[in-house]
Write a structure and sequence with these properties.
two-stranded antiparallel sheet
């Protein structure tokens, strides 16, 4: 016996299913929102290296494609290199090498811009440590004096 689906009942069943599911989700977001937020932040923190790697791979693949199509293949055609799988692999390897070199140079230049600033900041902090300790001492002395502490004895 062949069962005939009635579209009206199917429509109402799907509607009730999504309505109940929406109510359950609303309950969890209202009463368990902090737990969901904490869990979401934990998942994002775990996946962040993967996301960073995917973004970096996407950017570097665009650079690799540019180097291959605009630089290496025209040079190969001028040198009359035969279009074979082996030559395509060699061109790809050379393109990867150039891409890695460019990325390394960019990373090196960024580090060389940041490191001197960090060292300068550290030197200033170390140079001003006595002033910081003096300010902290003055603040604590004034605060404890205002509260009523004097040599470990509290005056009421």
């Amino acid at each position: 016996m062949k069962y005939h689906w009635d579209k009206k009942y199917l429509y109402w069943g799907v509607t009730i299913f999504f309505s109940v599911g929406s109510c359950i989700l609303l309950y969890y977001f209202l009463f368990k929102g902090a737990d969901i937020s904490t869990m979401w932040n934990r998942i994002i923190n775990i996946l962040m290296p993967i996301i960073d790697g995917l973004a970096l791979a996407y950017i570097l693949s665009e650079l690799l494609n540019f180097i291959e199509k605009k630089i290496l293949y025209p040079i190969a055609h001028k040198l009359k290199v035969k279009d074979t799988i082996k030559s395509a692999k060699v061109i790809r390897n050379i393109g990867v090498l150039f891409t890695m070199l460019i990325f390394g140079l960019i990373l090196y230049s960024l580090i060389m811009m940041i490191v001197p600033q960090v060292l300068n900041s550290l030197q200033n902090i170390i140079k001003n440590v006595p002033i910081y300790f003096y300010n902290i001492n003055q603040f604590l002395t004034k605060t404890l004096k205002d509260v009523g502490f004097k040599r470990g004895i509290q005056y009421i």
